[in-house]
Specification:
Elements: H1 8-24, H2 30-67, H3 69-105, E1 112-121, E2 124-133, H4 146-153, H5 156-174, H6 180-189, H7 207-212, H8 217-244, E3 258-262, E4 266-268, E5 272-279, E6 289-292, E7 295-299, E8 305-309, E9 314-315, E10 317-318, E11 324-329, E12 334-345, E13 351-363, E14 367-371, E15 376-378, E16 383-389, E17 397-401, E18 404-409, E19 412-417, E20 424-432, E21 435-447, E22 453-455, E23 462-464, H9 466-470, E24 476-478, E25 489-499, E26 502-509, H10 515-522, E27 529-538, E28 544-547, E29 550-554
Parallel strand pairs: 4-13, 15-21, 23-29
Antiparallel strand pairs: 1-2, 3-5, 5-11, 6-9, 6-12, 7-8, 10-11, 12-13, 14-16, 16-19, 17-20, 18-19, 20-21, 22-24, 25-26, 25-27, 27-28, 27-29
Helix pairs in contact: 1-2, 2-3, 2-8, 3-4, 3-5, 3-8, 5-6
């Protein structure tokens, strides 16, 4: 791209810049510092040249706007945004130079002046205030403390890096997907990636450190000038690219296909079907004629096929975007087919004709609501519910319920009723063409979760070996024949048995069998009965329930 190429003079300046940067690590003599002044002046002139060339591109946008505002306007707007952001970034870098120089030479540094300069912008010369830097007037060219303080300690380097990143990402997003070479070139020109470690085991060097730390002031100023040049170079690349896109999408009518774009191929009864008929190679400045009706093909003498509409048909109207719009009332359930001809006038006065067909399905408005477990909702648990409406996306569906709360959960819903014995009704609405319509409702019975079954050693009672019973650690409460995976926690229970003619009862808190209870079991003889009773549990709803006793006979 013409504006992105480097001239031999620019290449020479870049080479000098690299050589001088390398020499800094060896010696910082006055000659080297003065050489940086020359490099900085060369880079600054390059930046000015890029800026001037960029103005010719913006002037070309203005010329194109006089021909077609509709076609050129969107691209000129993007180019104007590039210019605004590039100007702001370059000015920010200029202010950083001034801040660094003033920090080293004093606030009245002779090298920094605010002057009125003439610039070429928008096709004419205009005057504006700007900060001017004179490298020759810098006293502390070799100062390497103040630049690091401003850029590293005060965080201005990190702020600049973020601004460059944002500008680069903004510009890359403007590049057409197929133009990967341009996007890569821009990304490299404005790269702020960390520098690789020089030795194995060392950490990489950050962008800020490599350009602003341990360097003399004149080198940091030159680095900032280089970044300004990079920004103007990228500005030239992207604006030239945007200019080339004005005609990139122009309509070519050597091949024309009719295209039917429908909002949906499934329409609810009582609503309206809508479709747009456009050209695949679309030009908003030349609207085709779209006629709806029975298409009748006719073979001509030259062997080509012409098309007519039986009975003349009726033409479609156009929307604000220049697309023909077909609308039909969806009164009857079932498939509906429609057809017509698209006609485009050629410069020679003949027509390009293309037939097209469309089809849509009219369905009856129905809501489908079903509980994924059973037709009962339980208190204290998450009851999963599936809700759908035929032909309506899930994000256009809303639902509510009485006697509880209903919330979305992933692709489904979760119902949490509040009162047992009171019916819960789930009502479903759908947003169709911007209007909310009621789709249906479903009633549910609301019950409390049934009690679990108390078990010891996995049994609900019966005969058991004394050693087996004495070895048990806990009393469990388990749900049987219930679809939900619920947990009940045993909070207290008692163990009772007749020992030496007297009934002994040993209570405990929690689910663990206590030492006193195990001692009682160990003193029982064969044929003795032992009872686990007064069993209390807490369920997921937080309520306390008492379970029937578990009775065993010692073998």
């Amino acid at each position: 791209m013409a504006h992105g190429k480097e001239t031999p003079r620019q290449k020479m300046i870049g080479m000098m810049y690299l050589v001088l940067t390398s020499m800094l690590a060896l010696n910082v003599s006055k000659d080297i510092l003065d050489s940086f002044v020359l490099v900085d002046e060369g880079l600054f002139k390059t930046t000015i040249n890029f800026a001037a060339k960029n103005q010719t591109i913006y002037a070309e946008f203005d010329k194109q706007m006089e021909i077609s505002k509709e076609k050129v306007g969107p691209w000129q707007k993007k180019a104007s945004e590039v210019r605004e952001k590039a100007d702001r970034l370059v000015e920010d870098m200029q202010e950083l130079k001034a801040e660094i120089i003033r920090a080293a030479d004093g606030k009245d540094a002779k090298a920094v002046t605010d002057a009125t300069i003439e610039i070429f912008q928008g096709g004419k010369m205009i005057s504006e205030e700007s900060t001017v830097i004179n490298d020759e007037e810098i006293n502390a060219k070799d100062n390497n403390d103040e630049p690091a303080k401003v850029m590293m300690v005060n965080g201005k380097g990190k702020e600049l890096k973020d601004k460059i990143d944002k500008f680069r990402d903004f510009v890359v997003d403007l590049v057409a997907e197929k133009d990967t070479i341009i996007a890569t070139s821009i990304s490299k020109s404005l790269s702020t990636a960390d520098k690789p470690a020089k030795k194995r085991g060392e950490p990489p060097m950050s962008w800020e450190v490599s350009y602003f730390e341990h360097l003399p002031l004149i080198a940091v100023v030159t680095n900032l000038t280089k970044f300004q040049s990079d920004v103007r170079n990228v500005e030239a690349e992207i604006t030239q690219h945007l200019l080339s896109q004005i005609d990139a999408g122009a309509l070519k009518v050597n091949t024309v296909e009719a295209l039917v774009l429908a909002k949906s191929s499934y329409v609810l009864q009582g609503s309206q079907y809508e479709a747009r008929v456009i050209l695949a190679a679309y030009d908003s400045l030349q609207k085709p004629e779209v006629i709806i009706g029975k298409v009748v093909p006719k073979k001509l003498a030259n062997g080509t096929i012409d098309y007519e509409i039986a009975g003349g048909g009726h033409p479609l109207s156009y929307d604000a975007s220049g697309k023909a719009v077909f609308r039909a009332a969806a009164n009857n359930v079932g498939p509906v087919k429609w057809e017509g001809i698209l006609r485009l006038l050629n410069p020679d006065g003949t027509y390009i004709k293309r037939p097209f067909q469309g089809e849509y399905q009219v369905g009856k408005a129905e809501a489908v609501v079903s509980a994924t477990k059973m037709n009962v909702l339980y208190i204290g648990v998450d009851n999963p519910i599936s809700i759908s409406v035929s032909g309506v996306p899930t994000d256009k569906i809303s639902a509510r319920m009485t006697n509880g709360n209903l919330t979305r959960s992933g692709a489904g819903w979760v119902a949490r009723p509040t009162r047992a014995g009171v019916e819960a009704v789930v009502t479903v609405d759908a947003n169709i063409d911007g209007q909310t319509k009621r789709m249906g409702a479903q009633s549910y019975r609301v019950k409390t979760v049934p009690n679990p079954v108390a078990k010891v050693a996995g049994k609900i009672g019966g005969k058991i070996d004394k050693a087996t019973l004495a070895a048990q650690m806990v009393v469990q409460a388990e749900m049987e024949n219930f679809d939900f995976d619920l947990k009940f926690r045993v909070t207290e229970f008692s163990v009772s048995a007749v020992l030496k003619g007297f009934t002994q009862t040993k209570p405990t808190k929690g689910t663990n069998i206590s030492a006193d209870q195990k001692a009682l079991i160990n003193n029982l003889s064969k044929g003795s009965k032992v009872y686990f009773e007064d069993i209390k549990v807490v369920g997921p709803d937080g309520s306390t329930r008492e379970l029937p006793a578990v009775a065993f006979t010692i073998n």
